[in-house]
Amino acid sequence: MSVQWYPGHMAKARRQMQDKLKAIDLVLEIADARIPAASRNPDFDDLFRDKKRILVLNKCDLADPSATQKWIRRYTEGGWFAIGSTGTQRSARKEILDFIRTSTEAEAKRLLETKNVRKTFRALVVGIPNVGKSTIINTLAGSAAARTANIPGLTRGTQVIRISSYLELVDSPGVLWPKLENQEHANHLAYVGSIGENAADPYSVCISFLRESAQRFPKLILERYRLEELPETPEEILEAICRKRGWILRGGAHDPERGAQMILQEYRSGKLGRVTWELPEEEGQNG
Ligand SMILES: Nc1nc2c(ncn2[C@@H]2O[C@H](COP(=O)(O)OP(=O)(O)O)[C@@H](O)[C@H]2O)c(=O)[nH]1
Ligand SMILES: [Mg+2]
Asked: How high is the mean pLDDT of the chain?
């Protein structure tokens, strides 16, 4: 599969992000726990160099729990504040807020003791499309009211939400782009639906998905589609699934387009099981 995608707004978005950064102290970077490497961009490290950062591996409900633990350990050992979350669950609010509090505690204490300042950290939620930025902002904001203030660095009218005595949140997330130079990462982004259909057509995405699944997670396919064994090629696997499910065209041929759409949809909604496509030990230092 070759992913064709040219984010033309990248430079502009980056400039806007740099402006926004002037107004905030804390970056809450959201990544997708199913693809922790592909859903981050190594450029973020440079962009956010001067900021306190917390990494949230979101969509843990769809990822392999032991893989998520490995990633969190890897990041924590690397000096990061990293936590897993399921932004769509109510419990996420308390978990993330407690974690932010713990992560900022030392600095807050230092400021109080040395400068007698009660620090309110103003946070910006950032990440590539579809990782759950809006969901997490809504979860954290809960019923807290947004207030508008003209804050240097933030576009006029940008709302700031007071979450607690130590935390404010900028209401509009910073959208960044994934890197698509690594073909495997691009495939993974397409599996989870973070690259639009215009850039990666469902049939090709599904063929890659079936090829990689058959190699690494055959049980996923065998169990969901009740196949006795996996045929040799991804095209044949797709056909076998279509026949099993009755995704057949008039005349009796299988309907690969429909099959591809359905399989991806089922995977993305968690029906095939919890999979993490990237593990820390397989990725480089920047994973
Ligand atoms: N299963 C699951 N879905 C989530 C989670 N967080 C967000 N989503 C879903 O992922 C999709 C994208 O979320 P959204 O907040 O719009 O992402 P954004 O583009 O980063 O703002 C939505 O359909 C959300 O309901 C999560 O933790 N688990
Ligand atoms: Mg959003």
From this structure: 91
